[in-house]
Design goal:
- 39% of the residues lie in helices and 19% in strands.
- The strands form four sheets. The chain has a six-stranded parallel beta sheet. It has a four-stranded antiparallel beta sheet with strand order 3-5-1-12, with helices on one face.
């Protein structure tokens, strides 16, 4: 907001309100703390009551929670908060679908660095809630020699030797390969991880035989929800997929049923009980007189037949 919410500022001041957070589709919830933080940055007095947690599955029409606070704060933060929550929940939901479609106990699904700018930390967190795993977070986390690195280094062997000479032994070296000759060259260079990039299923089977457990095997390249199950029975360790983040879409969530608490309608429980008590006692006295019955009450107070002690009606009426 460059100069405030001109729509909301025109119709509201400091009224209190409550609104429901509702799921409009089935999926995995992710990002409730981020959702909360948006409102807290606007007003620290906003409160939340959630009936689900991150990682839970929600269904269409589920009441996820309630948000209470200044109506202006709720309306100002609504879209930004929902954008985070819907995006993260969409990624968690898509990841869960990928995991279920793969249906493998030994192959793990990884994300990539193909994330939305400024959203990587949130999107990678969402992947874990859907049952996936994180690849390196950034370029400082791991050594990965891709095709351009290999070309720049003069070949796989030369590139591996250069990075090994300048990095500690605890850092694993991953090499991206596209054919069987490169697989053999990566093995000879003693790469820790070999990424089979854009290979067909039968090519992957043959590459796994060549590697023969001498390196960790990762597959990548055009892996999606539609084809991931074909990797299920391969002798590989990981599948990395950019689609897990950039093709995920969003989970439809909405803030609905806003209720404004206008001051003249606010009544405490004590005031409500006091009103009901007065009404009942006056009704008894009225009907008693109408029926010709003798009604006895304390004769002090502001109203005939009743006394007012400490602000509460204390009249005792007997027949």
């Amino acid at each position: 907001m460059t100069s405030g919410d001109i729509t909301t500022d025109s119709i509201l001041k400091d009224e209190k309100a409550e609104v429901n957070l509702i799921a409009k589709d089935k999926g995995i919830l992710a990002g409730l703390d981020v959702f909360k933080r948006v409102f807290e940055l606007l007003d620290e007095d906003v409160t939340f009551e959630f009936y689900f947690s991150d990682g839970d599955e929600v269904n269409n029409k589920d009441l996820v929670g309630k948000i209470r606070g200044r109506a202006k704060t709720i309306l100002e933060g609504e879209r930004t908060a929902l954008n985070f929550l819907q995006r993260m929940s969409g990624i968690a939901t898509y990841t869960k679908k990928m995991v279920d479609a793969l249906d493998s106990e030994h192959v793990k699904i990884l994300d990539t660095r193909k994330t939305t700018p400024n959203m990587r930390i949130f999107e990678k967190y969402a992947v874990t809630l859907g049952g996936g795993y994180n690849h390196r977070y950034n370029l400082s986390d791991g050594i990965m020699l891709k095709d351009n690195h290999i070309d720049a280094g003069g070949g796989i062997r030369e590139a591996v030797e250069k990075v090994r000479s300048l990095n500690p032994f605890v850092k694993k070296i991953e090499v991206e390969v596209e054919n069987f000759d490169q697989v053999r060259e990566a093995l000879e260079a003693k790469a820790d991880i070999i990424m089979l990039d854009n290979m067909e299923i039968e090519e992957i089977r043959e590459a796994c035989k060549i590697i023969n457990k001498r390196a960790i095997i990762e597959c990548s390249g055009n892996v999606s929800l539609e084809n991931i199950n074909s990797y299920k029975d391969l002798d590989i360790d990981y599948i990395s997929s950019g689609a897990i983040t950039y093709s995920a879409g969003v989970l439809d969530l909405s803030m609905k049923n806003l209720k404004i608490y206008w001051g003249r309608y606010v009544r405490s429980k004590i005031k409500k009980r006091r009103f009901v008590t007065i009404f009942i006692r006056k009704s008894k006295a009225h009907f008693g007189r109408e029926l010709g019955k003798k009604v006895w009450c304390n004769k002090t107070g502001y109203s005939p037949g009743y006394s007012n002690t400490q602000g509460l009606w204390q009249g005792h009426c007997v027949n």
